[in-house]
Amino acid sequence: MLRIGVVGCGTIGRGICRAIDEGVVKAELIAVYDRNACDAEKLRGQFSRFSPEFMEIAKMVKHIDLLVECASQEAVHDVVPLALTSHCDVLILSVGALADEGLRNRIEELASENSCKVYLPSGAIAGLDGLKSASIGEIHSVTITTRKPPQGLAGSPFVVMNNIDLDSISDATVLFEGPAKDAVKAFPANVNVAATLSVAGIGFERTLVRVIADPSVTRNIHEITVKGAFGEFSSKVENVPSPANPKTSYLAQLSAIATLKKISSPLQVGT
């Protein structure tokens, strides 16, 4: 059975751990880690089937087959190379870190050298299968418009650096429009889906991201338009925010769990 270690005990990390413990994912939960040890210890006491240890990552990678990163873009720089050099597969949730071309190339090289797999879940969007298929031919453009309640963008570097008063926004307001390589740094907790689209499609320079703060919406909305030699398609997902963290869509958590189910299943469905 697949042995899993989870790094990051926030909203998504907790959901993944519960899914493993409840048998939704056919795997063993071996270890958890969070830089806030209290969060990890609190989580450890919530399981019925497994008793995962709190382990430093250097020790964890010696006891697992797959490391699940759901901590931060910064954590990807340290955690993922360490896991790959220890012959562990990796599932990355903080996909925005891969906007760093040097890091992305290093991860691909380490995965190849150590015969490992690196998994990037679809996240809180639909249409990634179509984009992957379209990428075999020519893609002309990829655009994603993310629309969120203003407070769902609170604390983002872009909002903080530009002294944007989110409480004063009374109508739908475009806060950002530009390439994905800039968007993932400006809104690291909000637009990981743009990074996933970039990796699957035409890259971080050419993928266009638009971020809108809209007080009239209560859901996190992602609209994607892809045009290419195949024709064009659009998708729109209106995500219910996680009750524990309005910056995170519930579907993002479900996507990570579904990816783990796919990894551990003999039947592979979809592109």
What does this structure look like?
- The chain is an alpha/beta fold and 271 residues long.
- It is built from 10 helices and 13 strands.
- The longest helix is centred in the C-terminal third of the chain and has 14 residues, at 250-263.
- The model has no long low-confidence stretch (mean pLDDT 95).
Short note summarizing the structure:
The chain has helices at residues 11-21, 37-44, 57-60, 73-85, 101-113, 128-134, 157-161, 180-186, 192-200, 250-263, and strands at 2-7, 27-33, 53-54, 66-69, 89-92, 118-119, 139-148, 173-179, 207-213, 220-228, 231-239, 241-242, 245-249.
Helix content: 25-40%
Q: Could you list the spans in which at least 5 consecutive residues all have pLDDT below 50?
A: none
Beta-strand percentage?
A: 25-35%
Radius of gyration: 18 Å
Largest sheet: 6 strands, parallel
Report the end-to-end length measured between terminal Cα atoms. Answer: 25 Å
Mean pLDDT: 95
Number of DSSP strand runs: 13
Domain Aspartate/homoserine dehydrogenase NAD-binding: 8-121
Catalytic activity: L-aspartate + NADP(+) + H2O = oxaloacetate + NH4(+) + NADPH + H(+); L-aspartate + NAD(+) + H2O = oxaloacetate + NH4(+) + NADH + H(+)
Keywords: NAD, NADP, Oxidoreductase, Pyridine nucleotide biosynthesis
Enzyme class: oxidoreductase
